[in-house]
Specification:
The complex is a heterodimer of chains A (239) and B (836). Chain A is an alpha/beta fold and 239 residues long. Chain A has one domain: Purple Acid Phosphatase, chain A, domain 2 (4-Layer Sandwich), CATH 3.60.21. In chain A, the strands form 2 sheets. In chain A, strands 8, 9, 10, 11, 12, 13, 14, 15 and 16 form a 9-stranded mixed beta sheet that branches. A 7-stranded mixed beta sheet of chain A has the order 1-2-3-4-5-6-7, covered by helices on one side. In chain A, helix 2 runs parallel beside helix 4. The longest helix of chain A is centred in the first third of the chain and has 16 residues. Chain B is α/β, with parallel strands linked by helices. Chain B folds into 4 domains: 231 residues, Rossmann fold (3-Layer(aba) Sandwich), CATH 3.40.50.300; 156 residues, Rossmann fold; 49 residues, no CATH class; 241 residues, no CATH class. In chain B, the strands form 6 sheets. Chain B has a 7-stranded parallel beta sheet with strand order 3-4-2-5-6-1-7, sandwiched between helices. In chain B, strand 18 and strand 19 form a beta hairpin. In chain B, helix 10 runs parallel beside helix 17, helix 12 crosses helix 13 and helix 17 packs parallel to helix 27. The radius of gyration of chain B is 29 Å and the shape is globular. Chain B starts with a helix and ends in a 16-residue tail after the last helix. The chains are: A alpha/beta (239), B alpha/beta (836). At the A-B interface, helix 1, helix 2, strand 9, strand 11 and strand 12 of A face helix 20, helix 24, helix 28 and helix 32 of B.
Amino acid sequence: MPDAAPKTQTDPEPEIRLNGARLTPDISGGLYWPDRRTLIVADLHFEKGSAFARRGSLLPPYDTRATLLTLEAAIDRRRPERVICLGDSFDDLGAADRMAAADRTLLARLVAAQDWLWIAGNHDPTPPADLGGQVAEESIVGPLLFRHEAFLRPRGVMAAGEVSGHFHPKALVATRARRHRGPCFISDGRRLILPAFGAYTGGLFVTDPAIGALFPSGFDIWLLGKRRIHRLPGSAVLR
Amino acid sequence: MTLSDHIARPGASAEPLAPPTSPALPPVIIDWFARRGWGAHAHQIEMLAQARRGRDTLLIAPTGGGKTLGGFLPSLVDLLEHPRPPAAGIHTLYISPLKALAVDIDRNLQKPIQEMGLAVTSETRTGDTPQSKRTRQVSAPPDILLTTPESLAVLISYQDAARFFRDLRCIIVDETHALAGTKRGDQLALCMARLQRLAPACRRVGLSATVAHEAALLDWLSHPDRASAALVRGDPGARAQIEILSGVDLPWAGHYGLHAAERVYQEIVAGGVTIVFVNTRAQAEVLFQTLWRLNDDNLPIALHHGSLALEQRRKVEAAMARGDLRGVVATSSLDLGIDWAAVDLVIQIGAPKGVSRLLQRIGRAGHRLNTPSRAILVPGNRFEVMECRAAIAAVEAMELDGDPPRPGAYDILAQHILGLACSAPFTADALYAEITSAAPYAALDRRDFDDVLSYVEDGGYALRAYDKFKRLFRKQNGEYEVAGPRVAHRHRMNIGSIVEEPMLKVRLGRAFLGEIEEYFINGLEPGDSFIFGGRLVRFKELREMTAIVTPGGGDAPKIPAYMGSRMPFTTYLADRVRTMLASPTAWEGLPDQVTEWLRLQQWRSVMPGPDRLLVETFPRRGKEYLVAYCFAGRNAHQTLGMLLTRRMERMGYGPLGFVASDYVIAVWSAKPVTQIEALFDEDMMGDDLEAWMAESSLMRRTFRNAAIVAGLIERRIPGREKTGKQVTFSADLIYNVLRQHQPDHILLRATRRDAASGMTDIGRLADTLKQASGRILHRRLDRVSPLAVPILLEIGKESVYGSAVDDLLDETAEDLIEEAMHGLNDGPLHGELPIG
């Protein structure tokens, strides 16, 4: 049987340039910054499943594990020296206590293996202290500023180099044959919003005014496909 | 005709009648018949006789044959002969698949009760019943309660269900054939099993249209501890007169039947009150518009389909009942429903799809017994001519089709178990005995039952994480009980097995036009026009869950292509069409255009036979085509297309897309397919199917439905409406995570069972591939064959699948790259200070 050779991937990985920094969006939804050997992830929402269970919806309790395994795979792939979590890493203040023992162990191991920074989010204003890593409201590294939620400034003052999460951006795009909806990175070259990384995180369409207000002069998206990431202009977005 | 004539005639029972017991009617009822100049039908008397013997009974009769009275007569007689104490519970419970039908039947029942002067009370209870009336019904139950499976499930979940139902003597299931084998039917069967425990003496009565699988329907109705239900047949009535519209040019492809619109209009003008049935809502919209363009006589012609606002549908139904309409264009939304005696003609546009379905539709005309129903079939294309012929032949031979009821679904079982726990504590053993006494679950394995119970208790996850959040508590004595009133309240708000597509309201100015599938609106850009509710509108914007439209204009509407309204044709009809194709003697009487087309196929290629799978391959305009004549129905073909393109990708043929109809599937590719046998190998149903199921949006939708029915995701949370969108999205995420971490979870097993039929129709596909194994007939042609022309013409009209999503996205990105990427978004390589 003429088994086709696997498609050779010759295209270079897409890149996001932000305030002079060259960044690589990862198919996991994380962002890699090669020059600083830093991996950035947003909105892990550990224990979102058990938070729903507490309110009566017994969702499969595997979301924390799934998120951790994806994160571990991204770390193995990129081999960063540093990991920055952009807030809402824990779905609520009780989340860390609800984690299964095995999940806690895995997370602690990951945190211990590299320089780790927890940025505080609205769901986790005080990330747990006993898991290791450092905690900050925001952090400036070279040309980039990391915070949980993009800061909408008064007119005229533009954010330069802001990297954030919070909005869980997703987009709907038409192709020749069908529509594809998925999480995406969104940027105008000055600010960048990451997709949510957590296994149970839904999304907000990039056409939502809450996101639109942050990009007054348009944006591109980097849409997560099945195996690759696709850069598309904002004009290609249906929703 | 006198009453004694009827009594003298034994009912057409399937089994020999016992020596005639005295089924004599009470004088009050004889008088009533006499006053109206009627006699009781033989089957009504027979129903009474069976009731006196205490037998469960299934009445099979056409609509309009006094079927409903046949169902209620024994109860009226019993209530008359055995007066009950004032505080008695429900005596007779009537279940209908439609709310409107329950209300209509109640009205029709009140009349004889009043005219006979009986002290019998009857009331309806549906989702529309006001709270005050429901509360009163529980404290002071009527003798006869008319309701739906969903409302019954809510009643069963109340703590005083035992008191409410303890005096129950009879359950009447109307349109049994439409309920058995569906999830609603499963729910009803489970509720009947519970009612049997609360009121052991209670009898079951089924009212059904003619069906293919009588024995299976009898089993469905019967309680296993009792003798099988007796079968009573009504007078079959006059034979329907069905013809195929002739003398019009037949298009090669398409289903809309617009080529015949002028003739259809003339038939309405000549034929009296007419229902024009179509197969999809899109078709209904377009045909309705076309008919009105032709409607020089200004005949009152209306439109009826499931997306229109409920009030609008009720208005049409009321106008029809009053006799104010001359015609109505309708989809399956009118297949069932209240009885209109005044319909003179039924016109079926497009393929009939199934014999039983066609009979049901035809039966809407000429409801007066002994008046033959008159029907005209209008095939939309050449293949459909043969399908119409096959259906008429089957109707004449009274051979019906349809699948026997399938085993019960797990998701609705989970819902039911929680409902029972809300009502009263149970032990697992007693519950298992009760559940397996419901026919759809008679063969339920104890382990599967335990898994469902464990799912209800705490999610049934291998990782025991939710001890604190259980829905069921286990008491010291081993009994299960509901974890608290909040769980019970939430459960009752989410009862039911019908999961709708996420819908958006459509609003024009202040008028609410109806609801439309969200995915359709998602595909529109502001300014796009489409036909909805019989008018051309233009999409303006989306506000929350409402699509705002303005009056249309412009020339090319985007036609709504609604989801789920396309059923595949039945295996039975497919077999008849195949047989007809293979024997030229059967072509006699077909329109010349069709016979010429078939002869040409014989000459250029070969006819697909009943026992071989014909596969043609040919080049056309730089692409290679493969057409397989599987006759397995559209849904199975869609799934096959997904699997074939995956395999072709792996085998290096470079598949580009596929399109499926009820009859064939066509795939096109960069290179010609040479290894046909390998391509169609049955092992496709192994790894390829697995891989496809992981990604398929159809599987995700199937899972979402199961997750909602089983209560994993809620439709409604008290005080907080969850939009359809959020539900869809989270179900997707759960599907991925659960497949990865607990692939044998009961809800994934439920999803697989559901996927065997329905939109994915995997069961039918598996049968087809099995039959084809070793019997593929491959014809390599130098050009398209005549029989393949229709499907190739569908390309461009139908959704075309193919190519992995990444390739499609790359293509889109490349197309757009020139358009908008002029450095605007690529920041400079030197930065400025980050401003926080």
